Amino acid sequence: MSDTDRRPDQSLATPAKPSFELGTGPGRVLVWFYGVFTVAAASRSVVEVIRGFDRAPLAYSLSAVAAVVYGFITYSLVRGGEKARRAALVCCAAELLGVLVVGAWTLAEPAAFPDSTVWSDFGMGYLFIPVILPVTGMIWLRRAKRV
To answer: Mean pLDDT of all residues in the chain?
Structure first.
């Protein structure tokens, strides 16, 4: 068969290299932690809202925001692909910024937070995992770009 006889769907291109799976290897640990934190933050915010949202609306809202961010990062890591990697990287950076801002705010002005949030005191109530997790996530996601 000559090149002119070849059908268009029979290209000579080499098969595409499979994309790096974000949720494999060490990424699987990140998926697990982000999944657990999604459930923890969502459960916490639901309980807090039911028990009395008016007592500390800012703190309870921030717990809900944390749950959404954790959930999106979990989804992105499981989904994989370059777009998901970039989205997760942006969310990890936003998460880290949130933890640092809320953590500093809770130390500087404790009266603003009658109840703690997931990110209060830099995540001290969660063994500082809310600070460690986005840093680890960003390192993994930047490494994934090079593979």
So the answer is: 85
Residue that is written with structure tokens 């954790």 in the block: 70
Contact 119, 102 (CB under 8 A): yes
Which tokens is 139 given?
A: 């390192």
How many whole angstroms separate alpha carbon 147 and alpha carbon 132? Answer: 23
Question: Is pLDDT at 6 greater than 70 in this prediction?
Answer: no
Rounded-to-integer distance, Cα 73 and Cα 59, Å: 21
Beta strands of the chain (E only): which ranges?
A: none
Evaluate whether 63 touches 113 at the Cβ level (below 8 Å).
no
Q: Answer for the pair 24, 2: CB distance below 8 angstroms, yes or no.
A: no
How many angstroms separate the Cα of 80 from the Cα of each of 24, 69, 92, 94?
A: 10, 17, 15, 19
Nearest to 78 by CA among 37, 40, 32: 32
Of 59, 60, 62, 69, the C-alpha closest to 38 is 69
